[in-house]
Amino acid sequence: MQQVNTQHLRNYPKKPKQVYLFGTCIVDSFFPDSGMDAIELLEREGIEVIYPQGQSCCGQPAYNSGYKEEAKAVALVQVKQFPLDIPVVVISGSCGGMMRHHYLDLLGDSVGDLVGNNAEITNFCQRVFEFTEFLVHVLRLKPIDQGPKERVALHTSCAARREMGVHITGNKLISQLANVELVLHDYESECCGFGGTFAVKHADISAAMVADKSKNLVASDVVRYVSADHGCMMNINGALDYQKESLRGEHIASYLLKRIKGTSAKASL
């Protein structure tokens, strides 16, 4: 069953000394700099970041395509990578939603060496935090903007909006940057058409959706757009490149770090 954002129902912990980082398969394979920037941003707040080397995909593509047993096998391996009772910070909203809201349904009846019972899975799910959610509600980050004045848009993936509330926390973080004007583009809440395997199975529909999304981002007259989901960014940036538009997106971890450090913010290509 589809879950909605439940941030308002969570009891957020105090600032921890350690966290795990779940980097996601897309970031690990294509955008490692975003993962490194997320680690640096967390470390600047005095947190030790642990990155388990055995992590891979969260299992969402198989799960959304109806391959429950295959998704279960992937998810079981992921849970084993994060044994300590500390937060698991996920730098993709859609992956965070999968791990927080759907792992209990997927793994609740699992037994064996990897996972024991519902209580263990429930504990794991409750330790999962989307990156911007963690910055806002746990670290209570108030970034000091050292960058130049500019206009940006915020893209929030549709799954991450519904399940992890990234449109709320992403907006709050960007809005705190003194020299940044956050522009609300038309049809901001609409899907970009990626959806993992959806873009492969329904390529024509996906192409039409991302064409519409990229058109509205360009029309907003911003220097870049920011997102907390690299799957969407890969799709949108690809469409923008095909259209020969100069606009590109940047992961919010990289964008925040560069604004805080006062370094030039270059969009991810």
Layout of helices and strands:
Blueprint: E1 18-22, H1 25-30, H2 32-44, E2 48-50, H3 60-64, H4 68-80, E3 88-90, H5 93-107, H6 118-126, E4 128-130, H7 131-138, E5 150-155, H8 158-164, H9 166-175, E6 180-183, H10 198-201, H11 203-219, E7 224-227, H12 230-242, E8 249-251, H13 252-261
Short overview:
With 269 residues, the chain is α/β, with parallel strands linked by helices.
Textual characterization of the structure:
The chain is of the alpha/beta class and 269 residues long. The chain has two domains: 7-138, Rossmann fold (3-Layer(aba) Sandwich), CATH 3.40.50; 150-261, Rossmann fold. Helices cover 48% and strands 12% of the residues. The chain is built from 13 helices and eight strands. The protein has helices at residues 25-30, 32-44, 60-64, 68-80, 93-107, 118-126, 131-138, 158-164, 166-175, 198-201, 203-219, 230-242, 252-261; strands at 18-22, 48-50, 88-90, 128-130, 150-155, 180-183, 224-227, 249-251. The strands form two sheets. Strands 2-1-3-4 form a four-stranded parallel sheet. Strands 6-5-7-8 form a four-stranded parallel sheet, with helices on both faces. Helix 12 (230-242) links the parallel strand 7 and strand 8. Helix 2 crosses helix 13, helix 4 (68-80) crosses helix 5 (93-107) and helix 5 runs antiparallel to helix 6. It is globular and about 50 Å long. Residues 265-269 have low confidence and may be disordered.
